[in-house]
């Protein structure tokens, strides 16, 4: 080790250099930016919430005034109820349930039996060829009406004409032989009287004459048969009716063994309907038939909307179907307009009697429950009462009442599912009910409503929040109610509120008093 020189102090040892301390600029700036964002967000939320509360107060006040106006208007029109008028407000009286009523009438009513059946033609004939041969012509149009005896088609007649001519010639030859034999027979008898010939010759001539007579008869039969076969080459309609589609075209060879034939003819004027009724109703029908009465019968389409024809009952079947408990009946219709078609399904109405001065109600008014058969009666004060009734005969749409009702009373025919004894309702006539229905093509109002119901004033069922937008949104009734009064007021108050709400959202990119730092996405200058 070297020693320091004399008189010179020794220098202290240099300490080792360590890592320089880190600067805290980056983390500090991050925390400052986060704090600024939090402060700005809190200030913006506080300002927007206070502005919204003031807007909601004005909207609720407008909705309440609209609801109150709608309620007063509906009460002036009669039959409505006022809404709560604002958020959380108590409602007024509940509305009356609208029901459709009908008046009990006294009138003559037909006793009708309803049945299901099918149209059955009186004749259904397949036109077939009776001789075999080429089909030359078809003389009918498909679907046309034909009469019995009309020529429908022709088969080549030449072979049959030749056979006929041959039979005629054979007949003529044998007739000549017969005539000659008869002349000889006459001569032989004269000679026998003169004892010129023996009786044996006369007997032989008599036998020859009889032989020729038989031959002539055979020839005559052959001629007749050939004439018939020749006539079969002209195919004619066996019955009158409507001819169907053609089953064979000209040029084809037809024969008597063809199963399809040439066409099908169906007799449709007159025509019959075969239908069934319950066996319990058979005694009423037999009682009228045995008395010699003609029971009128009507045929209706499948939907029971259009009457197709009207006829009379012909007869009943001779037994009851035990599997279905029904009996078959047959009715006949003139069907001049051709509305009944073979095998068509029809609804049949048979009138078996007529009740005079019967108390009649619609079938829709009849209700059934634990107390039996009853109806809902609406009195002069529109109060509902349960009335037990005894029913009589029916015609399908109306029912006779033998006990429990008087003419002039009103019974409920629609809306009975929500009724009970003592309930006050709003009685609607069926004609007025139909006039109140809104067409499907008519645009609906902005407020929510129930079709066909009678609601008065505005409901005003706002919920304390955005009351101007929904507080006076009411159901539309028959009168001028909340949908027009309260709804318009709430809409007027709600539109400015939504605009103010959109303006109240702070924009972090704008330099406003609530956001003095401007764009919070940039770091603040140090």
From TrEMBL:
Residues 1-26, 54-95, 435-526 are annotated as: Disordered. Its main location: membrane. The keyword Transport applies. InterPro entries: MdtA-like_b-barrel (IPR058626), MdtA-like_BSH (IPR058625), MdtA-like_C (IPR058627), MdtA-like_HH (IPR058624), RND_pump_MFP (IPR006143). The chain crosses the membrane at residues 30-48. It is found in: Cell membrane. SUPFAM superfamilies: HlyD-like secretion proteins. Residues 270-353 form the Multidrug resistance protein MdtA-like beta-barrel domain. Residues 55-75 have a biased composition (Low complexity). Belongs to the membrane fusion protein (MFP) (TC 8.A.1) family. Keywords: Cell inner membrane, Cell membrane, Membrane, Transmembrane, Transmembrane helix, Transport. GO terms for molecular function: efflux transmembrane transporter activity. The keyword Cell membrane applies. Residues 357-418 form the Multidrug resistance protein MdtA-like C-terminal permuted SH3 domain. Residues 124-266 form the Multidrug resistance protein MdtA-like barrel-sandwich hybrid domain. One of its GO terms (cellular component) is efflux pump complex. Residues 163-233 form the Multidrug resistance protein MdtA-like alpha-helical hairpin domain. Residues 10-19 have a biased composition (Pro residues). It comes from Cupriavidus plantarum. Residues 76-91, 454-471 have a biased composition (Gly residues). This is Multidrug efflux system membrane fusion protein. NCBIfam families: PRK11556.1, RND_mfp. Pfam families: Beta-barrel_RND (PF25944), BSH_RND (PF25917), HH_MFP_RND (PF25876), RND-MFP_C (PF25967).
